[in-house]
Amino acid sequence: MPERCESMDKYISKVKEVDVAAVAGNKTLAAAMDRRAVDRCKKAIEKLGIVHTPVVGTAMDGRRLLLSGQSELTALRELGVRKMDAIEIDITDDANAKARFSLLLMSLWEKPGALCEGLLLQEALNAGTSRLELQTMLDKSASWISNRLALVTRLDGNVYELVKSGLLEPRSAQEVARLPAEVQFAFAEIAVREGLPKSAVEQLVAGYRDESCPDAVKAQILRDPRAALKRMADKRRAVKSGRSDHIKGSEPPDIIVEIIKATRQQMAALRRVLCSGMSFEAGVHLETLKELRSELITLFAVVSKSISPAGISPGKNHTPETGVECSG
Asked: What is the DSSP letter of 22?
């Protein structure tokens, strides 16, 4: 029987025994399901039973629709299990209830950060589990295990105590571990004192680690991180504004030289082909050559205007009306 909370008069638990075959799978969850996750679920179920209870919604017509736990449901079916415990939710009141409950469940599911994973791995190693066993158990590569463990060994012991005491979030500590060991605790202390969110910690750590970061800014990050954040934001805006002004302005001379160089090469190649005596099918190339002539006339006028308002003489071997003459 579900337990009741007398102060609120609401059910604490809605776990019920349901038929596995009666629960319709969730196509959206199934599309993102990893085969290896199902295999791990099967192993866990065989040893421990269902660790993560599936959540099932009961529709108005009596159908049971899976809202969470696709890997568990698939594993149970493959193991031939007929009955399972599931949290049953009524979704008959609203047509959008299924979607809303699914989003709520997704928001509640939180994967441990890299630091937490590293700490758990370290505990397992200290208890006698080998790295190879960890790789097999978690279906992870040797480099993945090493990277998580390296994160733990890089973290200053005093910073780890801040995490254990609940003063510093593990994900923020994960960023702090990227700093030089000698400044980690000083930065972590002021981050806690200032109540900096993980996003701010991430920006400050990235700024400190930037090779072009001046020593004065690094000192400010450790002394007054909020002022340093503002300083870094101002610099980003200035850089962005400078880039915008560059885009709005005229093309720099070196770009123009490169374009002219490439254009000359293409013109020389075309001239060699046209003057080589090769036969061309008029129906295939005539219209294209006419279009090219028109474009060259337009380009000629633009170049002439750029050089001199009065224009320049095209030369005796170039006539815009007839194109390029072949000589020698």
From this structure: G
- Read off the pLDDT band of 59 (50, 70, 90): confident
Which residue ranges make up each domain of the chain?
A: 4-108, 280-324
Q: Which two tokens stand for residue 6?
A: 């007398």
Q: Which amino acid is at 192?
A: V
List the CATH code of the domain at 4-108. Answer: 3.90.1530.10
Going along the chain, which residue ranges are E strands? 4-5, 10-11, 15-19, 23-24, 55-58, 64-68, 83-90, 318-319, 323-324
Ramachandran angles phi, psi of 165, nearest 5°: -80, -5
Q: Is 50 exceeded by the pLDDT of residue 53?
A: yes
Residue 250 has pLDDT above 60, yes or no: no
Rounded to a whole number of angstroms, the distance between the first and last alpha carbons of the chain is 103
Nearest to 14 by CA among 4, 25, 23, 24: 4
Residue 206 pLDDT > 90: yes
3-state secondary structure of 63: coil
pTM over 0.70: no
Can you say how many angstroms the Cα of residue 152 is from the centroid of all Cα atoms in its chain?
A: 24
Per-residue model confidence (pLDDT) at position 223: 93
Q: Strand locations in 157-241, DSSP E?
A: none
DSSP state of 325: P
